[in-house]
Amino acid sequence: MKNSKKRIYSHVIIIFIVFMTAGCQDIKGKETTLTTGEDESGVNHHTETGSTEKESDQTDSSEEKGTSKNQPESASSEETGEDESNANPSNDENSNQQPDGEKVDLNPYTSNEIEWARVWYQLAPNQQIDKMYVKKISAGSLINPNHEESAVYPEDVIQLEGTRLVDGAVTYSGNGDGTVNVYNVPARWNEKLNGEVDKDEIKKVTEDVMKTTKQVRIKAVSNEDIVALIEKIQMVDPQ
Length: 239
Fold this sequence. Notes:
The protein has a domain at about 110-190 and about 200-235. Helices cover about 55% and strands about 15% of the residues. The chain contains five helices and six strands, in the order αααββββαβαβ. The chain has a six-stranded mixed β-sheet, with helices on one face. β3 (about 170-175) and β4 form a beta hairpin. α3 packs across α5. The longest helix is centred in the N-terminal third of the chain and has 86 residues, at about 1-85. The radius of gyration is 54 Å and the shape is rod-shaped. This is Lipoprotein. It comes from Halobacillus aidingensis.
């Protein structure tokens, strides 16, 4: 009996010790878990806080940089605006700076009159003329009207002359695009005094006039100069 009781007691004690040991291990495990959780949460919190602070610093620095960039750009645009305003004066100022000749109105005059004046102004040797004679010459007319051996104009032409030989002459045809075909016709033909006529020479010279025609673009000039020449125009009977 005593031996059986001792065995029972010894089993009870062993069981008790086992339970106590297991309980201690659970407590230590929970403490370890709690400690680890606190450390991890602390680390995470610190990390998140640090990253938030860094993002905030970066945002602040970006805003500061943006402000510093925007300031010189706005200053630059202001300076550019001042330069542009100085380089491009207003239309009113431009109109005030126009020469007086541009204020002359050409509406009362025909396009032909304006063309004749511009051609004379650009191609004639003398601008100080008393009159500008305008003669219309039809296609097929003799280039040298004094001789039947002369070559003929292949198209209608206009001949402009002054009152004096030194004023020169301009013979041309218009192309309707701002250019003219200029014929090298002299203001006066060189005729021999003895009355002898070299027919072959006349034909050759007048044919050369037709072959050496040059195309010239007529430039615009001041309206005042145009009107001054238009007022000197005198029409001549067509040939």
